[in-house]
Design brief:
CATH class: Mainly Alpha
Number of helices: 17
CATH architecture: Up-down Bundle
Helix content: over 70%
Shape: globular
CATH topology: Growth Hormone, Chain: A
Number of domains: 1
Length: 424
């Protein structure tokens, strides 16, 4: 993940002008780093908390499986729709102030999910998804700007914080709901509290700075017509679809198989934490190889096969399959981001390819959890979802084979001089 994000951030810095020259103190850097980890921690609980509480929501509200599919899909869809706004917002308002807006909107959206009405559940999920989309883009740019000498370490901590937030929400949402009167709304809304605390911590770090005017712009031509660019994009999208099927539906699948809700949440939590291991070790190993084709195919096969194991294997083995699925999924996510950089001839092409892969990829990823819900509604069970998991894993493997070839996308990157305007 760090390679792609760092390249994206470099392109952002190149196009927006020079970074601030003032050198922050060690204490300020420690506070900034801690704050960034806290923000990252809060970018995933909306997905895993909903997953473990979905059976309660369906039972207590009468929500259909199809509507539940729309609900799990909505925030993922927003990740693709709102990500392109992040650079424009950062240029207009500054990165720090935009991030303050992100955590405020995320807190509001999460709180609305805990109001208890179906309408606010959908509205809150959309708001939270939009906020997370912007945060996904901006956090790595701050890591690149202020921790250039420790980018690898900070990116590793950032990855761990993302997985940690999802894992904690998966493990504790249902026990919290039980402790607060068996209220699914309380189990969802409680995650607005840590986001609100982070907003208070972040306020002093979002000064009234002037946004940096754009001095140089870069145009990249031919990207959307390039076959390799589409293979990279589809690889990203299909592996993300598999991941959000896990985030949205693994807990309900396990509960329908007879596992109690708290244990199902713990299994999902363990699977998510297993992602940290391979997300950290796969990129350094992959870049040392001649190409990444075998890595991509093997990880897609592992993630897909383990998901089938969670669906059909004896219940005594589900913990093993959960760990294997997490390892496969974490490696897939990391290498999908890594190939964006490896297939790009320069940082500006990497930025545009990253934007294409993220926007189109997340829109494609939204189809995965939606189809799981629809299949459950049509068939009354989750067995039919196995064919969807096979198709997603096979599609990721096929496009991963193409994306793993040692070559560059066939595009051109051109630099244009534009006059600076401090009045933006």
């Amino acid at each position: 993940m760090s390679l792609a994000q760092n390249q994206y951030s470099t392109a952002e810095n190149d196009s927006h002008g020079p970074a601030p020259t003032a050198t922050p103190s060690r204490t300020a850097l420690l506070l900034l780093g801690f704050s960034l980890m806290l923000i990252a921690f809060n970018l995933r609980p909306i997905f895993s908390s909903l997953s473990v509480l979905l059976p309660e929501i369906i039972r207590q509200t009468g929500l259909s499986s199809a509507s539940a599919g729309y609900l799990t899909t909505l925030p993922v869809l927003c990740l693709g729709l709102f990500a392109p706004l992040a650079p424009k917002l950062a240029q207009r308002y500054g990165v720090e102030r935009t991030l303050l807006g992100v955590v405020i909107v995320l807190a509001l959206g999460t709180a609305l999910r805990g109001y208890g009405a179906i309408s606010t559940l959908f509205i809150g999920s959309a708001l939270a998804g939009a906020a997370i989309a912007v945060g996904n883009v901006l956090l790595p740019s701050l890591v690149k700007r202020d921790f250039a000498d420790h980018a690898a370490t900070m990116t590793g901590l950032y990855t761990m914080a993302l997985c940690g937030g999802a894992a904690v929400a998966a493990a504790f949402s249902l026990p919290i709901a039980h402790a607060l009167g068996n209220s699914w709304a309380a189990g969802l809304g409680v995650w607005a509290i840590p986001v609100a605390i982070v907003a208070l911590i972040w306020i002093p770090q979002s000064p009234k700075q002037k946004p940096i005017a754009r001095r140089n712009t870069y145009t990249v031509s031919g990207l959307w017509r390039d076959r390799l660019a589409w293979q990279v994009t589809l690889f990203m999208g299909l592996q993300s679809a598999l991941a959000y099927c896990v985030y949205g539906w693994l807990a309900p699948i396990l509960r329908e198989r007879g596992i109690d809700g708290v244990t199902a949440g713990l299994i999902v939590s363990v699977s998510i934490m297993a992602q940290v291991f391979t997300s950290l070790i796969v990129p350094p190993l992959a870049v040392r190889c001649k190409d990444q084709r075998l890595f991509n195919v093997a990880l897609a096969a592992l993630a897909g096969a383990a998901l089938l194991g969670l669906l059909f294997a004896p219940l005594s083995t589900v913990w093993i399959w959960a760990v294997l699925q997490g390892m496969g999924q974490g490696g897939l996510f990391a290498i999908a981001l890594t190939v964006i950089v490896l297939r790009s001839p320069d940082s500006h092409v990497a930025a545009h390819l990253s934007s294409m892969a993220q926007c189109v990829g997340y829109l494609l990823a939204a189809i995965g959890p939606l189809l799981v819900g629809l299949l459950h509604s049509w068939t009354g069970g989750y067995s039919a979802a196995a064919w969807l998991f096979i198709a997603l894993a096979a599609g990721a493997a096929i496009n991963g084979w193409g994306a793993g070839k040692t070559t560059f996308v066939g595009v051109r990157s051109l630099r244009k001089e534009t006059p600076s305007d401090s009045s933006l």
